[in-house]
Amino acid sequence: MLKIDRYIVVNFLMGLLPVMLLLLALFSFMTLAEELEDVGQGDFRLVDALMVVLLTTPKRFVELLPVTALLGGLMGLGTMANHLELMAIRTSGFSRARISLTIAVLALLMAVVVTVMQFTVVPMSEREAVQLRARSLPNSEASKGAFWTRNGNNIIRVKNVLFDRTLNGIEIYTTDAQGRLSQLTQATSANYAGQDNWLLNDVLQSETHGNQVLETTFESKLWQGLLTAEQAAVLVLPLEALAPTDLLHTIASLKQNHLDTQRYEIVFWQQVSLLPGLLALALLSLPFLLGSVREISAGQRIMIGGLIGIGFYLVQQLSGHLAGIFGLNPALVILTPSFILLAIAIGMIRHRQV
Which of 39, 79, 146, 261 keeps 20 to 30 A from 213, CA to CA? Predict the structure, then answer.
């Protein structure tokens, strides 16, 4: 039995490997085309663009693995079905459930790999890509547009963040016990000074005293608690590249300060949904193969699998947008398609006629 399990797993992986390489090459080429737009600016050269593409590959691998599992299964196990090997395995005593269990265990092992990469490899490689861009494009912006946050009685606005985590256009609104504005601190930029301290540059501080406003200027001023180093890193990295723990810490910090967490929760649950989605798409390859392979040609199977994979990816993205637009529960909206697809896959396997 173990030899047959290994044979099924090897064929599944042999089908998955070329599909993954093809999709990675395609999406990496698209990323390279975007990076080439910055070649020639600052010290950013072609080799830097290629390195950025290489460093961002783990994130693409994680995102593409569910779709690849479906297409790879159709190719790898499809070869076995075309050679009547699946039929021979069935006649040797392997039931549909037994074959499905082998694929499910393999999918769960791949899910473990995805989880490990989400916690370690993806954040590390994305940070390296950001640091590379920071060295080559020192004045380029990492964040898109201004953002607001809150820390205690300070409401903070930052115009943008550079790749080296320099903050530009800082405004700090300090309120008193009654929630009234008592002080406004403005700075052209801020640099991280360690231990949650920030060095504000070109500071204008305005304090209210009754009906009067007292203005004081400083060449530089040390400010504690503006942002933590983790919060600054969150602003520089794409949200999808953050580790689940970083997202949870950010969500907890925002909730503590009574700020909106919807965007971060959506990304967190999208990361979680990759795991049931991976299991569902891996199992969905079996109903097309557990029967007469003459009903559907290999080309038709791949085309249908591609359409299902693309449809699943689009539904996952759409569900995140819908959760954000309508203020729906992110966990419920984003996880539902994965579990529906998993139920469909199990139902099709159980009712497939041989």
Answer: 146
d(Cα 79, Cα 97) in Å, to the nearest integer? 20
Q: How many Å apart are CA 218 and CA 199, to the nearest integer? A: 11
- Which residues form the domain of 181? 153-225
Are residues 163 and 272 part of one domain?
Answer: no
Distance CA(119)–CA(114), nearest Å, equals 9
Per the listing, tokens 């547009």 go with: 145
User: Are 118 and 62 in contact, with CB atoms under 8 Å apart?
Assistant: yes
Strand partners, 173: 155, 184
DSSP, collapsed to helix, strand or coil, labels residue 194 as: strand
182-219 burial, b at 16+ Cβ within 10 Å, e below that, comes to bbbbbbebbebeeebebbbbebebeeeeeeeeeeeeee
The predicted structure's pLDDT at residue 353: 47
Same-domain check for residues 160 and 129: no
CB atoms within 10 A of CB 230: 14
Count structural domains, the chain: 2
Beta strands in the chain (DSSP E): 147-151, 154-161, 167-175, 181-194, 197-209, 212-224
pLDDT exceeds cutoff 60 at 294: no
Angle at 166 between CA 179 and CA 249, to 5 degrees: 60
Tell me, yes or no, whether 158 and 125 share the same domain: no
Cβ contact 199:168 at 8 Å? no
Q: What angle do CA 91, 95, 98 make, to 5 degrees?
A: 130
Give the model's pLDDT for residue 72.
87
Give φ, ψ of 304 to 5 degrees.
-65, -45
Does 162 map to a domain?
yes
DSSP, collapsed to helix, strand or coil, labels residue 173 as strand
Please write the tens of the pLDDT for every residue from 85-130.
877 887 777 777 888 889 999 999 999 999 999 999 998 998 888 8
| 156/142 Cα distance (integer angstroms) | 18
Angle at 309 between CA 49 and CA 344, to 5 degrees: 150
121: helix, strand or coil: helix
